[in-house]
Amino acid sequence: MPQISVVLPVYNVEEYLRQCLDSLANQTFEDFEVICVNDGSGDSSLSILEEYASEDERFKIISQENKGLSGARNTGMDYIKGKYTIFVDSDDWLELNALEKLYNKITALDSDILMYKFRFFNQDSEQYSESVFTNLEVIDASLENKNFNYRDVSDILFKISHAPFNKLYKTSFLREAGIKFPENLNYEDLYFFYMVFFKTEKVSVFRDESLYNYRIRNNSISTTGNERSFDIFEILDLTQDNLKNVNIYSKVKDDFLMFVIVNLKYVYLRLNERLRNQYLQKMKEKYEFYSLNQVKKDHLNTWHFDDRVFYQAIAVSSNGIEFELNYKKLYYEFLANHYGGVIEQLRNENQVLAQKNNDLKEQLANSSIKNKFKKIVKL
To answer: Which residues of the chain does CATH 3.90.550.10 include?
Structure first.
């Protein structure tokens, strides 16, 4: 029985698939299997999978009619044999020491879920980037080398990455929890994360280094607005239900409302003009459903100014055109009235990034010096 099962949904990614498969085939940790779910690909993805499977018995292929990302992940979960499970998207790739690092950490702490750092790779600019969302810096250092639960991080519950791919799961935990990805819904990652997160007392974190590279493509489903974008409303409803089921909603309500606005804005800005008016009407309904009009002023003042303006524009707009006008009007009014504060906020954010950049340069310089010293010693 392999120690780790990698669930790899594959759909029309011939351009990027080899990089992903190579990153798995060449892992320093070797006791794993890769469950490749060919989700009705119409390009050469299946042929590429067959090539790798013929050379490496750890790669197993399951083909099915297209069921979408959730359906492919769920199919893969049915074939898991490993003690631990990790999800990888087929246009992304792992660092070669990823499985070894994660396995050592999760077994040392006997965790049900191990969260780890990842970074973005922009396909157009070919640049890497990180954020507090990807590097897990929001989690207190006191939780670094021990297990914790959702109650321990209730103050940052909605600032933790809900992506399934930057986590290693104990397979027995997933099976006992009986949780699958919701099929035929976008934003399934959000639902899945909170469902599993609320089911365990044993979560840990690895943030020594980024181990996963998430490719950003402008034409990917996550960056293209369409009718499926309206799924966000159902996903947010389900998340609210989950919070109530674990009796934590009253404690985190203010943060959840901000989380709602951030996600609604994220989707809205990716919609085409045809869908925006319909989306606004749905937002108006949810404005009352979530009691968004009850957001406390002192809590509202902690939001990013762009989120605040978006929130206020919903309240005073009745259609898409009106919303666009009010959004811009309130945005410029806010800048005029709080110009100094906004500049200070941006300056502080820039200083943090500059410090991180300097730290990284110093680390690279030290690493280079060490490598040169090693070469001299060898000579």
So the answer is: 4-223
